[in-house]
Structure formats: structure tokens, C-alpha cells
Amino acid sequence: GQYVEFSFLHETLHRTDRVLLCSDGLCAYHTEQSIASLAGGGDLRTATRALIAEACRGGGRGNITCVLVEI
After folding, report:
1. Which of 23, 25, 44, 63 has an alpha carbon within 20 to 30 A of 6's alpha carbon?
2. Considering only CA atoms, which of 12, 14, 24, 9 is closest in space to residue 58?
3. What number of other Cβ atoms are within 10 A of residue 30's Cβ?
4. Which of 18, 23, 13 is nearest to 46 (CA)?
């Protein structure tokens, strides 16, 4: 059967912090450092597109999903 695995992190958020919700199709093709760098740069749309583009360049073919929000 299918299952869903979640990772949870409890942190205090501050103004301008960003939170990324993504599928394994995105995080499987990035290091934590590259995610932090790409998610933290530019406006939200540009950062989201960069995350997806880099995952595709890294070999991702499907289920590359991400939502990036700024507090």
C-alpha cells in the first residue's frame, strides 16, 4: 500500500522567516544547504521556481512539489 511520511520540526518563527513544505521529489535532489540557499534568495516566486528547476536538473522527473511561505 501507499503511505505518507511526515517530518516535523518545532521552531519559533520570526518576521521574514521562510517555511518550505515540499515533496520528496524536491528534497531527494537537493542538499539541505542548497535548499536553504535557493529558498532564501529572491522573491517567493523566483525561489520556488529555482528549487523546482534545480531538482529537475538533478534528475527529478515527477512529483516535484513545493510551497514556500514567508512569515
Report:
1. 44
2. 24
3. 19
4. 18
Decide if 8 contacts 21 (C-beta within 8 A): no
Q: How confident is the model at residue 66 (pLDDT cuts 50, 70, 90)?
A: very high
C-alpha cell at 25: 521529489
Confidence (pLDDT) at 36:
93
Who's near 34: CB < 8 A, 6+ residues apart?
Answer: 54
Instruction: Tell me the C-alpha distance between 16 and 56, whole Å.
Output: 27
Res. 1 pLDDT band, cuts 50 70 90: low
40's CB contacts (< 8 A; 6+ apart) are: 18, 47
Is the entire prediction scored with pTM above 0.85?
no
Grid coordinates in use for 20?
A: 518550505
